[in-house]
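G., the chain you wanted modeled:
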Amino acid sequence: MRSLWDIIDEIREKPEAVRRRYMFVYVSVTMVLVVGIWFISVQESLRSVAVTDTVDDMKNQASRILPGSSGATSLSELLERGDRLDAVSEPAPTEDLFESELRAKNQGKSGEVKTMDETQ
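Predicted structure as tokens:
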């Protein structure tokens, strides 16, 4: 059996018109394969979209999955009541970044970085 390199060398020795014919055949076959795979993937995408026919169906599906408005709290309600988003009832022992930046801004030092000489 001949190796791939032998076949390539044999094609290289043929006239240019024959080599172009080989090239067009190989490019056409490759293009048909790529377009075929693309066509199959588009069909699958359209089939999955067809499952959810209308916006109303999607809304109904979402209402079954998501909690109702009675169980959910909006962010504006949380801000009005001053509730925290985390599940921990006690505040974290470390200071929030926002609070430290706000304090630094009030002292006029917001965003400043000290060099080694300034810290000593």
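The mean pLDDT is 76.

Shout if anything looks off.
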